[in-house]
Write a structure and sequence with these properties.
Elements (H helix, E strand, L loop, with lengths): L8 E12 L15 E16 L4 H5 L2 E5 L2 E11 L2 E10 L7 H7 L9 E16 L4 E13 L2 E13 L4 H13 L3 E2 L4 H8 L10
Length: 207
């Protein structure tokens, strides 16, 4: 998930992704006993995903994007229960120059000169921080538009619950509440959804 510009470097991302239907509304968080919430409101995110002509990064199960002034690389993932856990590298930099730390990760899978923009997403993100006495999780509701030039190709929505391993119990409670409210655990990344909408769901994509 990551917060644009919040930090630079590598970290481990742990999140549960859930698909939600059109018109889905976030259930009342008062259903979670013993928590406090901070509503951080809406933020617009503009992301350009980069890959090779043959989708070498996607085939390797990794991803590269530039979003709101920050480059992000997402490494290969593993499953822990409903959560996806993966390395995430974020570096603040302009879109014209892939930073060295990000290049190092990408060149393990593809030739850097072969990378170019392949998908563009515009997202309206609503974020809520949820805390109990010992831990915190971040809940986001993303309404995503896939763009091809001046054309809207597709729209979809999803919810993400991001948390540290120490917040597993709180995250589990939140995910159960969301599923009861009509969400469905779904590990497909936004990038792959966008590729499918653009007609580029190539065999071998494993994300």
């Amino acid at each position: 998930m990551g917060t644009p510009g919040a930090s630079q470097g590598a970290a481990e991302e742990r999140e549960v992704k859930l698909a939600v239907p059109d018109g889905w509304q976030l259930p009342s968080l008062t259903q979670l006993d013993g928590v406090t919430t901070t509503d951080r409101g809406d933020e617009r995110l503009h992301a350009v995903y980069w890959d090779t002509d043959d989708l070498g990064l996607a085939r390797a199960g990794v991803g590269l994007r530039h979003r709101n002034g920050t480059w992000g690389f997402k490494g290969t993932s593993r499953r822990e229960g409903d959560a996806l856990v993966r390395e995430e590298v974020e570096v603040v930099a302009g879109i014209d120059n892939i930073p060295h730390l990000v290049r190092e990760r990408c060149q393990l899978f593809v030739e850097i000169p072969a990378l170019h923009p392949v998908a563009e997403l515009d997202t309206m993100r609503h974020t809520v921080d949820i805390r109990d006495a010992e831990s915190r999780v971040e809940l986001v509701h993303d309404r995503v538009t896939v763009i091809d030039g001046n054309r809207v190709v597709a729209r979809f929505a999803e919810v993400e619950v991001e948390f540290a391993v120490t917040a597993q119990q709180l995250a589990d409670r939140l995910v159960r509440m969301l599923v009861d409210g009509g969400a469905v655990v779904d590990t497909i990344p936004k990038y792959v959804r966008a590729l499918r909408a653009l007609g580029r769901d190539a065999p071998g994509v494993v994300m």
